[in-house]
Amino acid sequence: MPSLFEVYKQACKELKNPKKDEINVRILLCANNNLYSMSEFYLKKDENIKDLPRFKKDFSRFLNGEPIQYIIGNSEFFGSNFKVDPRVLIPRQETEEVALYALRKILSTFPNQEISLADVCCGSGCIGISLAKHIPLKYLYLSDISQDACDLAVENLALNNVNGYVLHGDGLKPFIKHNIKVDVIVANPPYILNKNDVDKSVLLYEPHNALFIDDNLTIYRSIINDAIKIMNDKMLIVFEIGYDLKDKLIKLIHEEEHEVDITYTFRKDINGKDRIFSLLLEKK
Q1: Cα separation of 131 and 107, whole Å?
Q2: Do residues 241 and 275 lie in contact, with contact meaning Cβ atoms separated by under 8 Å?
Q3: Is 190 a domain residue?
């Protein structure tokens, strides 16, 4: 049986872009040999690979364009590991920025206060579960319109030793139905209109219902309008948004009368694109 490093060198020769993708070869080999870090890979690089046929199968999937996270079945987000598969989107760096912003905003808006947090359109549950580890938490709710996503969110709660409730339903409807009140909503809803705006591998492998929507204001409008039904005296909402939605969302806020006072702000991501839409709702 060849060593890990021998398999690594041979696989790298088959890569179209070795500088970019050689790390993914190491990730596959770590998964194959139950190694938990790149340091451990280099310490044990002369050990025999445990399952060469499995590696060859996984490497073939990678060469065909399947995302590495789906192949190994997990993804790191905000310092924690989450199970992922084609039932849910793969967590992205931009979404980590949303989570970090939400964390800071929660702590400044509700200082020294236990809060009830809802991660709506939760997918894997990565945003809500990650935030739950860093805030004084009263209740955590994860909700999604996809039952498959809800099932995976349950697994990720257990994987991360976080207590929470998973609700199946559209937007805030399950919260309204069960008379659940929350202080904070975080949401990364589908907001892409044009399938040409995503990479080929995303189009081929990731769930379209979590990416694409006919009207990319629908869910934002629904959550903002329904929030008053599940809020206490004030509520913080933090959305991930598409880079082209800022003007539409400003218009959305101002075109309707609201029963609460609303202040809002936008924030750009590391690439300089509008990515975060934050609202503070306060009862009049």
Answers
A1: 11
A2: yes
A3: yes
Query: If you search the block for the tokens 């020769």, which residue do you land on?
Result: 13
Task: Tell me the pLDDT tens digit for each residue of 178-223.
Answer: 999 999 999 999 988 888 788 888 889 999 989 888 888 999 999 9
Q: Do residues 158 and 190 lie in contact, with contact meaning Cβ atoms separated by under 8 Å?
A: no
CB-based contacts of 200-208 (< 8 A; 24+ apart in sequence): 200/65, 201/65, 201/66, 201/67, 204/65, 205/65, 205/66, 205/67, 205/70, 205/86, 206/67, 206/86, 206/89, 206/90, 207/86, 207/87, 207/88, 207/89, 207/146
pLDDT in tens, 236-279: 999 999 999 999 999 999 988 889 999 999 999 999 999 999 99
Same domain, 82 and 103: yes
Cα distance between residue 243 and residue 234, in whole Å: 27
pTM: 0.94
Residue 46 placed within a domain? yes
The pLDDT, as a whole number, for residue 249 is 97
| 191 plus 264 within the same structural domain | yes
Which amino acid makes up residue 219?
I
57 and 123 in a single domain? The answer is no
The band of 108, judged by pLDDT with boundaries at 50, 70 and 90, is very high
